[in-house]
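Section 5: illustrative case.
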């Protein structure tokens, strides 16, 4: 069967076609139209602008799909219903609703967080899937930071989440303080790499919020504030911060985020006797995070397998939406009943 995925929960307009045959998947189309450049001047996503762009981009991407694939092949439509920015979610939902009615196709609402988890199963064969559970899923994106106990596909318990800023949000905001571009996550990752390359000696020390607390919650706003004060202090009487300092601070921000995420994930993997750790969301595209997670898990919980999506599938895409719809294909909804839920929770 061929499934159309529609994802517009934030600032990427995404359409994808996924083919499922006996539980194995093939990517037919995966279009992502990024608005990052447009939002860069605001240092974050501007919802009404994002909505307008989705409205403009969805038909353009859909026309591209129509050029390559016959619409009669599509059997199911999956659309992100939340969580996300409400005006943005509605554009995808309205688009999917109209299409479902026009083509007389079943429609499945998809949880965006679950989709970030499930994309990790794109290449896992059906018979192998049960061997990954129970799993600890870590979702780290621009809007969310959650540690989730996953007993099966469709069975989740949120163990903890951020009390304030998400990890990606913290990277985006601290990058802005440092004068780096948006989105901040990749910008900080790029510049942090120069620390070793340029043999920089300078080192700064930033807090690892909540790292020693026994719970699985996170907090990243204190890290952001610490960066703000540090930069204020360092730029006193100067026009701007030296490149070396920006590199050293970027590296320390990235390391502080990795340390907190890694410590809590390993703790949860031990406590819940996890067979695997599954990571997803934009921040999981970070190469240094991947390297340290692989290394430390091997050392501290050697029997626990680790799954990361292909880096370009870590960030928002509609392939993950189509894949989630496949797993929930029986949970269809009447188009007129489907609504955007900005704060949709995993169950
Ligand atoms: O999952 P995503 O595409 O959108 C949301 O659902 O929020 O995540 C976007 C977030 C942004 O905060 C961005 O800075 C971060 O993911 N990000 C990264 C990297 N690529 C994207 N953070 C660290 N390293 C990266 N390579
Ligand atoms: Zn996302």
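Designed sequence:
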């Amino acid at each position: 069967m061929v499934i159309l995925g529609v994802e517009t929960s934030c600032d990427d307009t995404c359409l994808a076609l996924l083919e499922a045959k006996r539980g194995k998947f093939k990517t037919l189309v995966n279009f992502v139209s990024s608005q990052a450049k447009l939002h860069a001047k605001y240092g974050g996503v501007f919802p009404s602008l994002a909505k307008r762009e989705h409205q403009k981009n969805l038909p353009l991407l859909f026309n591209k799909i129509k050029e390559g694939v016959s619409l009669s092949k599509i059997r199911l439509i999956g659309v992100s219903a939340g969580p996300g920015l409400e005006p943005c979610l509605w554009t995808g939902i309205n688009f999917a609703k109209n299409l479902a009615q026009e083509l007389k196709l079943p429609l499945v609402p998809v949880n965006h967080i679950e989709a970030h988890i499930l994309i990790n199963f794109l290449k896992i064969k059906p018979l192998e899937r049960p061997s990954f559970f129970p799993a600890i899923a870590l979702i780290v994106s621009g809007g969310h930071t959650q540690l989730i106990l996953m007993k099966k596909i469709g069975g989740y318990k949120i163990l903890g989440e951020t009390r304030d800023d998400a990890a990606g949000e913290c990277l985006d905001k601290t990058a802005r303080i440092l004068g780096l571009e948006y989105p901040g996550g990749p910008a900080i990752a790029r510049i942090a790499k120069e620390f070793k390359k340029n043999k920089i000696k300078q080192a700064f020390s930033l807090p690892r919020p909540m790292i020693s607390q026994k719970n699985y919650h996170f907090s990243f706003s204190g890290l952001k504030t610490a960066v703000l004060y540090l930069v204020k202090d360092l730029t006193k009487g100067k026009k701007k911060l030296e490149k070396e300092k920006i590199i050293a601070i970027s590296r320390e921000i990235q390391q502080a985020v990795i340390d907190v995420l890694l410590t809590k994930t390993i703790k949860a993997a031990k406590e819940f006797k996890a067979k695997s750790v599954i990571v997803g969301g934009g921040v999981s595209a970070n190469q240094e995070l991947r390297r340290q997670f692989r290394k430390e898990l091997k050392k501290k919980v050697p029997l626990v397998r680790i799954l990361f999506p292909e880096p370009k599938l870590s960030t928002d895409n509609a392939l993950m939406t189509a894949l989630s719809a496949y797993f929930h294909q029986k949970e269809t909804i009447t188009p007129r009943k489907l609504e955007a839920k900005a704060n949709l929770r995993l169950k």
